[in-house]
Amino acid sequence: MLKGHLDMIVLAALAAAGSAHGYAVIEEIKQRSGGAFDLPEGTIYPALHRLEQAGLLSSRWTTADSGRRRRVYTLTKAGHRALAERHAVWRQFSDAITGLLAGTRPRETPA
Amino acid sequence: MIENYLEQLGRELDFDRSLSRCVRQEVEDHLWEAVAASRSGNSHEAERQAVANFGDARAIAAEFAVVSLARHTRRAGIAAVLIIVSVFIAMKARVAWYAAMQLAISDDVRAAGRIVITIDRYAFLASVVIGLGGWIYIQSRQIPAAFDPAYRRQLRRFFLLCGAAAVALVVSVISDAVLTALQLSGTGLSAEFLVPILSMAIELGCVGILIFRIRCVAQRAASTAALTHT
Predict the structure, then answer these.
(1) What percent of chain B is modeled with pLDDT above 90?
(2) Structural domains in chain A?
(3) B180 and B76, same structural domain?
(4) N or C: which end of chain B has fewer CB within 10 A?
(5) Same domain for B20 and B71?
């Protein structure tokens, strides 16, 4: 289920962090989700490349304080639009499920 | 440990050297940053943890390979359209040269020439329509996250369209070669032949590049499939 929403999660983290490299994006996701999303960290990078290819992110290489080459990603205008669209769809879905579950209680199973 | 992991990741992506290099640098930065942030006092343990958290190198490489394949497929679509346009320009340049030099097909081969012109026209038209179709098709698809059956179907359709466009273009270029031979037959070799021969060389080169591009994408698709399945 998480994989299906990975693009939205990455876009949201980058929107919050501004320009960020992969490690910072992962940290942002962990921090904002309270550590709820525990996926292999390496999965974020192909998603970043895919989103860049789709024109939702742009990237540039910089040099980190450590002297290593670092790739920094930023949301493009199309990325901001895509995030707003996904946000609206998610809210609609979430409201619908909340309405559906309102007044119901999970049946307790005997121990 | 990190070096070994990077070596493995680089090896898995070896079919795309620039991707392999770029991914290696990006992942190296991530892993060392994770080690630096680790609260474990043991550096060996911190490296082991960073690599474990990053995930299986082969699985990560497979995801990168899909993104790379999508990029190259789209580029092949653009290349197909540009190649068809180049063939058209070469064709028109040759015809304009014939008009300027007042060169015409001799009467005894005129009937055969008409048939070849018809074949050439329809084959080229087919390559334009199918090539544009292939390009629009692949550009309009979303970039896939996995090498799943839906993406495989998408690739098959793209290869079918590109292959058909290439076949039509080959027929058109062969017809052009026959027409050029008919046009120049019976006349002595002179500097006037330079433009027709050069334009034919350009057309043949363009067809060669198109076939090469399609073959490269097919090889890449095979590498991605191998990486995904094993």
Answers:
(1) 52
(2) 3-101 (1.10.10.10)
(3) yes
(4) C
(5) no
Note whether B17 and B68 are same-domain residues: no
A-chain residues near B53 (CB < 8 A): 40-41
pLDDT tens readout for residues B190-201: 777 888 889 999
Asked if A68's CB is within 8 angstroms of B29's CB, the reply is yes
Q: Which of B146, B155, B152 is nearest to B63 (CA)?
A: B146
Whether the predicted pLDDT of B213 surpasses 60: yes
Does pTM surpass 0.90? no
Mark out chain A residues that contact chain B at CB-CB < 8 A. Answer: 3, 6-7, 21-23, 40-43, 45-47, 49-50, 53-54, 64, 66, 68-71
Domain with B46, as residue range(s), is: 2-55
B86 in the same domain as B36: no
**To the nearest whole angstrom, how far is the Cα of A32 from the nearest Cα of chain B?**
18
How many structural domains are present in chain B?
2
Could you say which of A41, A42, A46 has the minimum Cβ distance to residue B67? A46
Considering A2-11, A98-107, B65-74, the range whose residues carry the highest mean pLDDT is B65-74
Q: Considering only CA atoms, which of A83, A80, A70 is closest in space to residue A7?
A: A83
Whether residue B129 is found in the same domain as residue B36: no
**Same domain, yes or no, for B117 and B73?**
yes
C-beta pairs of A71-78 under 8 Å, 24+ apart in sequence: A71/A21, A71/A22, A71/B22, A71/B25, A71/B26, A71/B29, A72/A19, A72/A20, A72/A21, A73/A14, A73/A19, A73/A20, A73/A21, A73/A22, A73/A25, A73/A48, A74/A14, A74/A18, A74/A19, A75/A11, A75/A14, A75/A15
* Interface residue B148 vs chain A (CB under 8 A): no
Residues A1-54 pLDDT 10s: 456 688 899 999 999 988 999 999 998 998 888 878 777 889 999 999 999 999
Chain B environment of A23 (Cβ under 8 Å): 29-30, 33-34
